[in-house]
Amino acid sequence: VANEGGKHWTVNEVRALIRIWSEKNIQQQLEGTVRNKKIFEQVAARLQKFGIDRDWKQCRTKYKNLKHEYKSVKSAQDSGSTSKTMKFFNELDAILGHCTMEQASKSDNDESERPPEWTEAKSGKDSMG
To answer: How many CA atoms lie within 13 A of 85 on its CB side?
Structure first.
């Protein structure tokens, strides 16, 4: 199957992508940003060293697809279904399994990370009418 990212990714190409993605510094960069073109340019450059010719867009698309597939398999498993599976689940689980937990708790704690004077100032204004 050819996707919009050009020719289909081989198992080795995906492995190489995941290997780079699993590095701590890459993960941290990816977690911390939405505009990640620069990161995927790095990833693409690293893949070139393995003889894998992919541009940053293809890398990003594949990354998004893998992440999406992983999440749908993971949520199927969480709901007790074992029928849904994917090729690189274990590799991705090693990367994303803990990330998703961290990110979930991060978003829960958003309120507490605000400086208290913000919330007080807001409620003060409100009570003045």
So the answer is: 4
Domains of the chain: which residue ranges? 11-97
Q: Could you tell me which residues come within 8 angstroms of residue 53 by beta carbon, excluding any fewer than 6 positions away?
A: 47
Inform me whether the pLDDT recorded for 48 exceeds 70: yes
Within 10 Å of residue 57's Cβ, how many Cβ atoms?
A: 15
**pTM listed for this prediction:** 0.68
Cα 105 to chain center, whole Å?
16
**Average confidence score pLDDT of the chain:** 79
The structure tokens listed for 52 are 């894998």
pLDDT exceeds 80 at position 104? no
**Rounded Cα gap, residues 65 and 118, in angstroms:** 39
